[in-house]
Amino acid sequence: MTSMMQLGKVLTAIVTPLRPDGQVNGDAFVALMHHLAEHGSEGFVVCGTTGEAATLNDAEHLGLVELAVRERPKGVSIVAGTGSNDTAHAVKLTRAATELGVDATLSVTPYYNRPSRLGLRRHYEAVAEATDRPILLYNIPARTGTNMPPDLLAELAEIEHVEGVKQANRAELQLIDGLELYAGDDASFAMTLDIGGAGGILVASHIVGDAMQEMARSPQRRSEIDASLQDVYETLFLTASPTCTKAALNMLGHDVGGLRLPLVEATEQELAAVAAMLERHGLPIVRPAASTLG
């Protein structure tokens, strides 16, 4: 059994590379995973929001999870996104990911349906029966339309295997009895660590993973480093994620490709902002912004 603390403090919500024809690029995924593991990432969330899970079919989704488990760099953890607004589908994905050997699963609040508190509890009870691995709840009301307040999170912590929460509602960022706390956005990573949280599920670690690892390891420098990275956080979220993250990775020479509709490629203005951010941080641009799709 994996404990939540063994997942690592810097977990990257890894993008899903795509080929020019829009199909998943497994080779680029493995190459990126190994690169990131060499630059601060202690684990990966596969097929999360940043991985464009909403546009992956089940075969692609579970194929990526299987690939991540099989090709993982030594010592890193693999957390599979297995959430859905259909409980039966979430159960299916969670069971399959468990059988594939993941260390934990990330289960987003059912979106669009906006279930009641009782509905949320029943949903997570069903999901928990499908696995013997730790489950991280994922609270991101801006995307799902449903917030899980601290008292509800504490109630859900009573469910066997529910052991952590990725908290993306900064207004309610606090420790919860029975749950390990993970920052749900880059800008709250330092604060999460400062209050005793387990770490963060991050996007900027694609670009500045070494600096984010230094934040985790060096409390005395945390505030200084965090302040220096504010423009990275802001630039990567100028538009719908992972648009600017993929643009940045492509500029840096990683073949992550484009996006699937309804997401669209970065505009000229967004590409210019990404390029300027990379230059400010001394990150060498291998490909000019006009040719980021390779």
Structure description:
The protein is of the alpha/beta class. It has a single domain (4-218), classed as TIM Barrel (Alpha-Beta Barrel), CATH 3.20.20.70. Helix content is 40%, strand content 13%. It has twelve helices and eight strands. It has helices spanning 26-37, 58-71, 87-100, 117-128, 141-144, 150-156, 189-194, 205-217, 222-228, 230-236, 243-251, 268-280; strands at 10-13, 43-46, 77-81, 104-108, 135-139, 162-167, 180-183, 199-202. Helix 1 (26-37) packs across helix 2 (58-71). The radius of gyration is 18 Å and the shape is globular. The chain starts with 9 loop residues before the first strand and ends in a 14-residue tail after the last helix. The relative contact order is 0.13.
Q: What is this entry, summarized?
A:
The chain has 294 residues and is an alpha/beta fold. The protein is 40% helix and 13% strand.
Largest sheet: 8 strands, parallel, barrel
- Spatial order of the strands forming the largest sheet: 1-2-3-4-5-6-7-8
Name the beta content range. Answer: 5-15%
User: Would you tell me the structural class of the helices and strands?
Assistant: alpha/beta
CATH class equals Alpha Beta
For the CA atoms, what is the radius of gyration?
A: 18 Å
What number of structural domains do the residues give?
1
In the CATH hierarchy, the third-tier topology is known as: TIM Barrel
The name of the CATH architecture is Alpha-Beta Barrel
CATH superfamily membership, which one? Aldolase class I
Q: Quick one: overall form?
A: globular
Query: What low-confidence regions span 5 or more consecutive residues with pLDDT below 50?
Result: none
Give the averaged pLDDT, no decimals: 96
In helices, the fraction of residues equals 40-55%
| Total number of beta strands | 8
What is the distance, rounded to the nearest whole angstrom, between the alpha carbons of the first and last residues? 41 Å
H-E order: EHEHEHEHEHHEEHEHHHHH
What's the total helix number?
12
* Oligomer classification: single chain
